[in-house]
Write a structure and sequence with these properties.
The protein is an alpha/beta fold and about 220 residues long. The chain has eight helices and five strands. Strand 1, helix 2 and strand 2 form a beta-alpha-beta unit.
Length: about 220
Amino acid sequence: MTDNQPAINDEQIRNAKLVWDYHQMGHDLRPVDVAIGLGSHDLGVAAFSAELYRAGLFPTLVFTGGNSPTTAKVFPRGEAVHFREHALTLGVPDSAILVEPNAGNTGQNIELSRELLASAGLTPKSALLVSKPYMERRSFATARKLWPDVEVLCASEPMEFDDYLKSIGDEKLVIDMLVGDLQRIIEYPKQGFAIEQDVPENVHAAYEDLIRSGFTSRLIGA
């Protein structure tokens, strides 16, 4: 948070926590054919993917993602490249990792990963999407639209909301992204990018309050 930015108050944190909880799917994890680590600013995606690989949940791990305005400085060689390097340090063998370095959005994450797997002779029937905690639902809705013949599970590093805020170190950015992801969950089905997801009234009200409070930098067209 910058010096000239007003402090985030308790009500805004409560609203953000409602949205945070909604974004998580709560899937029970089990072995799958492949996992896809979705690129982002959150290196925890790579760490948790490595943990799940070591637990024997999948034999093949795809990291997907190029760069975005929020990651270019942190991961100058691309999200997927840096995620792979981190996973290697955590014990995932290079032979188990495929890298898709070009995707610029969630739809491309899914489509380009599917193409990469096909080029490697792999046609999975089940896939685990590993993402930031607040991206589970959007990645699920996207994959179900674009990859309907594959059973999709979602997972993210298990963290409480307050702990995640501290780990990222920028409360405003995280809440902006929570709001932006929910907007996309609402709007993208209309554009054919994802399947529809029910949004409970209290979550929608919290989302609108956060927009009125100025958490808007990640909204479409912002």
